[in-house]
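Reminder to self: tokens first, then the designed residues, so the page reads top to bottom the way the pipeline ran.
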């Protein structure tokens, strides 16, 4: 599934950004929408995963040692734009009949 590959890439970039700042991302806070969309990909993830209802379609990758202490200790990502893009492409395919 292309969307899952995109999520994997976005998550990988967020992790690399945190590593680049000298941090060690070790947790992933996920909303139920994000979890529903990317559950299969998250099984291979080497982060501790916590479901947070309030995050909806978003996720936050973070270094738990600094979460809440430093603004740059986390990155927030969302699958909602990818879902909207997929819906748009589906609608366009219907129009091409």
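Designed residues (97 positions):
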């Amino acid at each position: 599934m292309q969307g899952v590959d995109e999520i994997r890439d976005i998550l990988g970039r967020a992790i690399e950004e945190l590593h680049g700042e000298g941090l060690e991302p070790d947790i992933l806070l996920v909303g139920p929408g994000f979890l529903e969309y990317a559950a299969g990909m998250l099984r291979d993830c080497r982060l501790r995963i916590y479901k947070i209802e309030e995050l909806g379609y978003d996720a936050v990758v973070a270094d738990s040692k600094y979460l809440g202490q430093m603004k740059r200790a986390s990155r927030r990502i969302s699958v909602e734009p990818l879902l909207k893009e997929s819906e748009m492409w589906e609608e366009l395919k219907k129009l091409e009949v």
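Residues 2-20 form the longest helix (19 residues).
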